[in-house]
Here is the input.
Amino acid sequence: MTHESGGFDLGRWSAAFAVEDSSQPTTPLDLYGAHDARALYDETYENYKSFVNPPLARVMKLSGSPVEVRALGSTIWDHNGKAYLDFAGGYGVFTLGHSHPRVVAAVREQLERMSLSGKTMFSPLLGRLARALADLAPGDCSISFFANSGTEAVEGALKLARAATGRTKFVATTNAYHGKTVGALAVSGRDAYKTPFGPLLGDIVHVPYGDAAVLPDALRDAAAFIVEPVQGEGGIIVPPLGYLRAARAACDASGAILIVDEVQTGLGRCGMLFGCDRDGVVPDVLVLAKGLSGGVVPIGAFVTRPSVWNAAYAKQPLVHTSTFGGNPLACAAALAALAVLHDEDLVANARARGEQLLAGVRAIAADYPSVVREARGLGLLVGMELQSEGYAGTIVPEMLRGGVTAAWTLNAQRVIRLEPPLVVTAEEIERGLAAVRGAVATAFAKLGVLVETSSTHT
Ligand code: PMP
Here is the structure.
């Protein structure tokens, strides 16, 4: 089964979610009851500074962050009514853009019926969503567990692997990002996020990302190998073709579970349905979140083979649970989101627009080699690695001033991610590229040549 355009029948899920696709924002400016734009900004900044995260509030203010008030499609409006193309894309959440009308309508309809599960009865939408994911996921990955975020889904996958194998060791990759709860953090790669919290989970080995030769040895007696098809927060690192295939073979040889973390790469982001389709690999556990519910209600999930699920939980069905995981609102959103992904042919659009975006960033890199070291990516997951982290502090705010959001990656602050919604148009890509070019030119004019030592690209 090919997953590039969906070797499954999403069309049959879509019929239930057909609504008129007509809404455009009539009043983009909404001040949430504040008497003017300045008052909304001041109130929000003061709240962040006093009650949310004081140091972060100051950094956001310095970098010129406005207050977001409304969003639709690829556009976010701030408190002044200024429109921004969203090239940060919620770090991969907004595959369908913001507030897709079909997803919003499905959630609104469910809200009137029943928003959260009573937990003592079967939930029809949870069943339908699990079935839709079984159709969609590679091979016989057909049993879904639902959580509320990426990191929770990763925790579930790690627990599943230990319970299914009776082993404890996890193998993960250097510079990985799997989330910030204790287990997911332990298999992640950035020390700055980990050291204040140790000891984290024990029995973890990190291997260089993209190096298949080390896997057979490292995986001996392991419960699982957890890996991203493209490292997102690690700096948009695309491994050599065949890496996941080698990982599959090494897991088969050692009896380890292959956990593919597609929280950021899954559901069309990379110009194919799943990142693991690039190698035609069937994981034992596929982890999803971010775009799964179309950017309207949070959700996370892992999808696994029946043999793995049964090895872990056949006799203990309540040993891993979540109160809110797979709630009816999230499931309604996800079913509608999968229908939109199919009906709007967004996987193909991600591939075409991704090529356009990457070619454009490569042209900027060629024109400003002292500022941009490399442009790389897969589909609409594109990274621009700077020669020095020092440029990022100018480029991101400059892009914002130019009406385009962007962000650096969490483990590699020298890499700026460009991750627009999969609904992005060719014209929007050109506008985004113009903002990148303008920001790079300004950074070069302001800062000249900055020197840095090493590359994030291993
Ligand atoms: N895995 C990957 C690959 C991610 O990119 C992220 C988030 N950037 C996570 C897990 C964690 O997801 P969340 O922030 O929803 O917990």
Notes: The mean pLDDT is 93. Residues 91, 149-151, 154, 177-179, 228, 232-233, 261, 263-264, 289 surround 4'-deoxy-4'-aminopyridoxal-5'-phosphate (CB under 6 Å). The chain has 16 helices and 15 strands.
